[in-house]
Design brief:
Radius of gyration: 31 Å
Distance between the termini: 76 Å
Largest sheet: 8 strands, antiparallel
Helix content: 10-25%
Shape: elongated
Structural class: alpha+beta
Length: 164
């Protein structure tokens, strides 16, 4: 007896195409069951065990803002989920580069715009690899948008210190 006869039947009884379709359906059903039942051996809280909610102190610089924006940011506790407190705030005129009539470049203070440097406590998540803020890595040089409730500003992280 042949394995596949002249009519394409497996062992003379089942069509080979039908047999392959049945095997494919069984394989898909098995894979779907393993996926739904969670085929991994890690406990459900393994991800939580690797992360820690911490407070990270970051120095944050905002350049070229109007004076009313600088005045709206106050030192002290902040009532938002991502920012715990503004620990320190300093304001100085924004430095700009201007070209004179001869084409020479000069550094001058802008007549209105200000640069604000903040030392803020942020609610972050720490893993073995990095610190994340708003689900993105928190690192020096990264631009952030911080919402203080009554004012939202965009600036650059210039320094980090963890407050475990």
């Amino acid at each position: 007896m042949k394995l596949i006869d002249d009519k394409g039947r497996l062992l003379g009884t089942i069509n080979i195409i039908d047999a392959l379709v049945v095997l494919l359906v069984l394989a898909v059903a098995g894979a779907g069951t393993a996926l739904v039942l969670g085929g991994d051996n890690q406990p459900a809280n393994a991800t939580q065990a690797l992360t820690d909610n911490t407070t990270t102190v970051a120095t944050f610089e905002i350049t070229g803002v109007q004076p009313y924006v600088a005045d709206a940011i106050t030192e002290g506790r902040i009532g938002t989920d991502s920012i715990t407190a503004v620990e320190n705030k300093s304001v100085r005129p924004t430095e700009v580069i201007v070209r004179d009539q001869n084409g020479t470049l000069h550094e001058r203070q802008h007549p209105r715009k200000q640069t604000v440097t903040l030392r803020v406590s942020l609610n972050t998540t720490t893993t073995d690899e990095d610190i994340t803020f708003q689900d993105k890595p928190l690192e020096v040089g990264r631009q952030l948008t911080l919402d203080f409730g009554h004012v939202t500003v965009k600036g650059t992280v210039t320094n980090l210190a963890s407050d475990n």
